[in-house]
């Protein structure tokens, strides 16, 4: 997960990436919790849970349309954005960011939230393409409008 987020790091800044990787000012090494992994796995679980809900729990002909699939995608994106932004922003407000990392702004936290949206779109679409074939009523969604 960290590799994907670091690859997209130009959206949210390298200083925030160091903090999310677990940089500790006390030890001078990456000894804190790796927030990339925590946020990435949480986003992946949320995306998979939404796909399973859409294709196997709701599984009704009324929901077999692309725009209803888009509703689920938007909900997943909002939740995963709030997750990523909330964790970064709460660390920023609480002063949990090492002082030897240069200033991190709210814009970088927003950028990381947007990066998590990109990762969530990829996860949700891939999960949909993989598990939709077992659905009785929604197997043509999202390609049926």
Can you tell me about this structure?
The protein is mainly alpha-helical. The chain contains five helices and two strands. Strands 1-2 form a two-stranded antiparallel ribbon. α3 (35-58) packs antiparallel against α4, α3 runs parallel beside α5 (106-131) and α4 (66-94) packs antiparallel against α5 (106-131). It is elongated and about 55 Å long.
Any key phrases for this structure?
145 residues, mainly alpha, two-stranded antiparallel ribbon, 5 helices
Question: Outline of this structure?
Answer:
The chain has 145 residues and is mainly alpha-helical. The chain contains 5 helices and 2 strands; from the N terminus they run ααββααα.
Please state how the strands of the largest beta sheet are arranged side by side. Answer: 1-2
Largest sheet, strands/sense/barrel: 2 strands, antiparallel
| Beta strands, count | 2
The sequence of SSEs as H and E is: HHEEHHH
Secondary-structure-based class equals mainly alpha
Helix content: 55-70%
Question: What sort of overall outline do the alpha carbons produce when their principal axes are compared?
Answer: elongated
The radius of gyration is 18 Å
Task: Give the low-pLDDT segments.
Answer: none
Q: Give the distance, in angstroms, between the N- and C-terminal Cα atoms.
A: 33 Å
Overall pLDDT level: 85
Percent range for β-strand residues: under 5%
Number of helices: 5
Number of domains: 1
């Amino acid at each position: 997960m960290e590799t994907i987020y670091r690859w997209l790091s130009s959206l949210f800044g390298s200083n925030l990436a160091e903090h999310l990787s677990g940089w500790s000012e006390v030890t001078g090494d990456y000894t804190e919790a790796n927030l990339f992994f925590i946020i990435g796995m949480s986003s992946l679980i949320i995306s998979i849970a939404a796909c399973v809900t859409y294709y196997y729990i709701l599984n009704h002909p009324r929901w077999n349309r692309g725009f209803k699939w888009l509703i689920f995608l938007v909900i997943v994106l909002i939740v995963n954005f709030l997750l990523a932004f909330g964790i970064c922003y709460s660390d920023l407000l609480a002063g949990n960011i090492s002082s030897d990392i240069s200033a991190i702004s709210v814009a970088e936290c927003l950028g990381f939230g947007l990066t998590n949206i990109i990762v969530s779109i990829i996860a949700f679409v891939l999960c949909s393409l993989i598990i939709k074939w077992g659905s009785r009523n929604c197997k043509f969604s999202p390609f049926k409008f």
